[in-house]
Amino acid sequence: MTLPRNTTVLIVGAGPTGLASALSLIHYGFKDFVIVDAVVEGDNSSRAIVVHAATLEALDMIGCGNELVSKGTKMTSVNFDTRTGALARLPFDSLEPYTRHPYALVIPQTFTEYVLGQKVANLGVTVHRPHKVVDMKVNTVDTDLADITFEDGQVVTTRYIIAADGARSTIRTIAGIGFVDPKDGLEHDSTTLVQLVPADVTFDNPKLNISNLSGVMSANTYFFSVPLPSTFNEYLSRKTGKFIEDRIVRIACGVPVGEGPVPQAPSKAYVQNLIDKFGPLYLSSDPSANPSGKGVCIKEVIWSSRVRTHSAIADTFFTRLPSGDSLKPAGAAILLVGDAAHIHSPVGGQGMNLGLRDAVFLGEVLAKHVKVTESKPLSEADQILTDFAAERRTRALEVIGFTKSLLSVGGTKDAVVAWWLPISKVTLRDWVLWMVGKVYYLRRRVMWNFSGLGRR
C-alpha cells in the first residue's frame, strides 16, 4: 500500500492505543494524520481482558465507551480464596457514587482492538499495513519535520510522531530514549514471581459455574480465572472460521522460579498441571481432590503464552528528534503512549487501561498544541506537551508501584514474618485479605485503586 508523502501527525502502531489516539484526534477536530502498523492484522490472542471504570469514562469522552460495554461482560466483584476456602469478596458497587461504570468490563484486548478498528474505519480512516519503521531523521529542508523511512523504502514526512508501537518501540529506540525499571522506592523483593502463564481454555464440564473474577492465593503464587464474554466466541468464529461452542475461560497463574522456566507456548498438559497444583480444587482434574468427586479437565487451549512480570518506563514521554548537529535545532515532536512509554506486571489488569487513557487525553492536548503553534513560538507551545508528558509519566509511575505491590501480595513467600512474630507471611496475607473483605472502607479503597479513578 502506498503511503502519503506528508502528514502533520504520524501514528506508529495500530493496537488499541494507536487506534484510540486516532479516534481522539478526530473527536477533537483534527484529521491530518496517518496511522501505520507493522503487521498485516492484529493478533487474535486475547492478552489484556479488563477495561476499568476510569478507562471507560475516558472512552466515553470520544464516543467509544458504549460500544465496548455492549460487547463485554460487566464484572461486579473480585473474589479471593484459598484452595480450600473463601477469603474475601470485593464488590465494585462501592464505586457507584463516583462513576457510571461501577464494574470492570471483561473484554479481550484483541476484541477491543477490533471494535476500535471498526470505528476508525467507519470514520473513513485507513490503517496502512504492513509498514515497519526502520529509520527516522530530521528533514533537511525544515528542521521542525522528520522523515520516517519504512522497510519498503517509502518515506513519510511529519511534524509529530505518536509512538504506539509497543514495548520494543522502534521510535523510542531511534530517539535514544531510555527504558528501564524505576526501582527507587517501588521495588518489592518479597515476591518470587517473575513469570506468569495466561491461557484461554475451555473445560470438559459444560455445567461448570465460573463467574466474576476468582483468585486463589497460595504460598509463593496466585491463580485466577474469569469467563470471557460469549461475543468473543462469535468474534473468533468470524476471524478463524471455527466456532467454539463452550464458554472460554481466561486463566492466569504465577509460576514460582522454583518451578523452572515456562515454555514459550505452554501446552495443554502444562496448563492443566498448573491448575491442578495452584488452582481451585473444583477445577482439579484429580477426582480424589475435586470436591465434586469428578475431575474437570481442559478440553481445549485456545491460546497460551508466557509473560515476564518486569516493569520499565521511558525516561520521558515527550522529546524532539535529535538532529545530530549541535548547530541545528531538534526536529519533529515525539510522543510515547501505551507500552512504548511504560510496561509492568499484568496483575490488576492496568496496562492496556493506562495506555488507552494516555491516548484519549493526548488527542485533546495535541490538537491544542497544533492550534497554539499558529500564534506562539514553538518553545512556548511545547510547554503544553511537556506538562502533559510529565503528568502521564507520574500516572505511569503510580501504576507501576501499584502493580508491584499487587505482585508482592500474590507472590508472598512461605516464610515467617520475623523471629519476634513467628507467623507465616502467607497466613498474615490471607488474614489481611479477609479483613479487607469485611471492612467497607478497605474494600472501597482497594476497588478504587483497581478502577483507576484516582489516577486517570
TrEMBL record:
Keywords annotated in UniProt = FAD, Flavoprotein, Oxidoreductase
Report domain FAD-binding positions: 7-183, 334-375
InterPro entries in the cross-refs: FAD-bd, FAD/NAD-bd_sf, RIFMO-like
The chain's coiled-coil residues are none
Matching entries from Pfam families are given as:
FAD_binding_3
Give any GO molecular function from the UniProt entry: FAD binding
Q: What cofactors does this protein use?
A: FAD
Which PANTHER family does its entry note?
BINDING MONOOXYGENASE, PUTATIVE (JCVI)-RELATED, TRK SYSTEM POTASSIUM UPTAKE PROTEIN
Q: What is this protein called?
A: FAD-binding domain-containing protein
